[in-house]
Amino acid sequence: MISAEMLRALCPQGAETVIAGLARSFDLLLPAFTLSTPLRQAHFVAQAAVETAYFRTLREYGTGQRYAPYIGRGPGQLTWEANYVDMGRRLELPLKAQPQLVEEPALGTLVFLIYWMHHGLNRYADEDDGRAISRAINRGSAASDKPANAESERLAMAETAKALLGASKPTRTIKALQAALNRLGAQPKLSLDGIAGPATEAAVLWFQAERGLAVDGNAGPGTWAAIDDALAELDA
């Protein structure tokens, strides 16, 4: 359960009014958008924490003159006129004329959830891929090769949120294996089809040889542990 106590433990430097408003909104709205597992909630909350300067504000610091008055607002920091217009159209609200409405915790949370679902971020949360989530939110695409602003802070915040919410590691699916091997340099790139075919086996054999593991093509616990270590090195 997402509570004010949980958000306070995650970000003790947060403002009480922000924490209280977001806790109520998160607890009410996240399950309605199928963010009902601890892992999905942990990744959502972690991103919101960094976007709001660790729950200090629901309005971007500074004047944002390049895009004022459409500065970052809400737990997802909705920014730019075109995005306010799009969200206003979706919600049938005058967000272009009254962008400050997004500073209201419930509406701001709703806006962030619409963005989250539009970009299919539950999929990445289920795979515990905080890197892809961070880039989708900050760069506009989960596939961006450019790190998100404060990417390491986002990943660290997700680890803390997972611990607070009791989120377990995701199931080791074939699709997750394929995505991880692609990130680690598998050639040719694997299709994320969830099928343990010859191409996936060849990529596992390659990775095992690269890491000095037993080369058997089986992605067992030892190979997964090495994959986790390699991904951590990549993200460091």
Order of helices and strands: HHHHHHHHHHH
User: Which blocks of ≥5 consecutive residues have pLDDT under 50?
Assistant: none
Number of helices: 11
- Largest sheet report: none
Instruction: Write down the CATH class of the largest domain.
Output: Mainly Alpha
The multimeric state of the shown protein is single chain
What are the main properties of this structure?
236 residues; mainly alpha; Lysozyme; Muramoyl-pentapeptide Carboxypeptidase, domain 1; 11 helices; 54% helix; elongated
Describe what this molecule looks like in 3D.
This protein has two domains: 4-165, Lysozyme (Orthogonal Bundle); 174-235, Muramoyl-pentapeptide Carboxypeptidase, domain 1 (Orthogonal Bundle), CATH 1.10.101.10. 54% of the residues lie in helices and 0% in strands. It has helices at residues 4-10, 16-29, 38-51, 81-91, 105-118, 121-126, 130-138, 151-165, 174-183, 198-210, 221-235. The protein is mostly helical and 236 residues long.
Summarize the structure in short:
By secondary structure, this protein is mostly helical. It is 54% helix and 0% strand. The chain has 2 domains: 4-165, Lysozyme; 174-235, Orthogonal Bundle (Muramoyl-pentapeptide Carboxypeptidase, domain 1).
Q: Topology, pairings included?
A:
Layout: H1 4-10, H2 16-29, H3 38-51, H4 81-91, H5 105-118, H6 121-126, H7 130-138, H8 151-165, H9 174-183, H10 198-210, H11 221-235
